[in-house]
Description:
This protein has 431 residues and is α/β, with parallel strands linked by helices. The chain has two domains: 4-211 and 221-250, Rossmann fold (3-Layer(aba) Sandwich); 270-429, no CATH class. The chain has 15 helices and 16 strands. It has helices at 4-8, 10-13, 35-38, 48-51, 74-87, 100-110, 120-126, 153-166, 183-195, 253-268, 293-305, 312-315, 335-353, 361-369, 375-390, and strands at residues 63-68, 93-99, 140-143, 172-177, 201-204, 206-207, 233-234, 237-238, 273-276, 281-284, 287-290, 319-321, 327-329, 399-401, 408-410, 417-420. Helix 5 runs parallel beside helix 7. The longest helix has 19 residues, at 335-353. It is elongated, with a radius of gyration of 31 Å.
Amino acid sequence: MFPATYRATFSARFHATCNSPDWLPNDDIHPAASADDFCPGRHEITTVSDAAPHPFMPRHPSHVLIVVAGSRADVVGAALTSYVSQTHRDVDELHVLTSAQHGTHLRADLLQSAADDPLADAYARLGIERSDVLFGNRTIHALGASADPANPGPAADDVLDALRRLCGDDNEVAIVASPDAGMLGILAHAALQLVGGHKDRFYYLEFDTAPDKGAPARGRPVARRRSLAATAVLLPEMPTVLAPQPIEAVHTFQQLADARRLARQRLASPGAMVLIGRRRLVRIDDIEVTLPRLQFFWLFVLAALAPGSFPLKALTGSFHVDARSRVSIAGTPPDRAALEALVATLQKIFVTLFPGADDDFPRVLKHACGPSPGLPSIIAKINAKLKHALGIGAAPYLVTGGRGAEGYRLTLPTTNITIEPRIALAHHTRH
């Protein structure tokens, strides 16, 4: 499970795990002053300086079990026993997430002396040694700056941060939520879907509620809580809908929730898209996206042509740029007149956006709409930037269409599109 050489180099190679000095600040309810304080009654952690690992020693991902608990220490052993028995998987690290309200009490219960160890029965049932599982003071995380259950924000942020760290380094993570975990279990399930990987799993610890034989008669007080050692335990796996990729560590849980809600709102009722030429800036609500020069030019063109389309297929092969950078249009009327008006409009937009760059227009036109048109690649890059900035809410603002007769267009209503500066177009320019 946990070889000695691997444990010896653990703190240096897994910065986001329990040996990391920059772990969650709420772990310091009982700061560890020594190795014994760190893990009383457990194993000794060898320092990296003692081990002197080879610089090219491969890094091994850990199999991490996280128990989301309430106030009962015995659910941790029940979760460990049920998980290992059901999945037949070894556990390298055992972490416990609990609320600030129960943190001090639960930590004290779990870190008793070896004689009173609440996990001793679980280790014995599984036939493993205490030193096989990395567990101690710093793998018990009391989450939430406030013990107020009406304010879940701090706890949500701490759960997201904890799972983001533990799901890193290619670790394989399994989360087990106990019945008394309450709101924390719900937050852990939501957070795993944001930062978890394809190997990570979420389980729910469920106890058989059948009464004991010889249980006290109704109305008679029960002297003590029923032990979980003799209780039948179920461990159903809860489905998780993972994000397309793990969420970056730049937003709090509440910010992510607000952003997703706003994105869904944009799908139902898109806001305004403003293109500001002097800054090459696209502004949608409070989000601003700066585009490179050519990408902004072509998006500006499509915005100016809306609700019409840009006929790439008709333009490709229908013009010629001579040695003196003059553009001439081929074809027969009335198509020729329409294409001439379109090219004149493109040139007008170009020189308006980029004063003094008139000589660059023929080259830009040939690169985008010539025999090997580069416009599809430019459109793909524009859409990629909008998707990155807006997420699932980008759909109404994307450029649609293709090289076919339908051309490229913006489907956003023209009442939601503003271009600065405004450029008047001839009526027959729009297709």
